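User: structure tokens for this one?
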Amino acid sequence: MITVHLKYEIDPDRTEDFAEYGRRWITLVNRFGGVHHGYFLPSEGDSDIAYALFTFPDFAAYERYRTRSAEDPECLAALELARTTRCIRRYERRFLSPLDHPETPWTRPVGA
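Assistant:
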């Protein structure tokens, strides 16, 4: 299992645009076989940092998602939304492997 952790630096004046971008990607990641754990928008503290987490069964499944999403019209529209609104200033992507423990439900196989 591979979990992708994204840290975004966003424009605080474009939070609603970023929220729309996030809503779209939650649906898209799920449609492409992943499990999206959500976008986390600024609340207290930094006003320009947001996060997202999503999981695929393995790195190969993630790579298939990346290949397919690069040609998907809805994915391209979501990217265009971010580009035209400039709601995202920059982002960092990390790949994580969750700790396998029976009391953590998110370590169950995707779709279980």
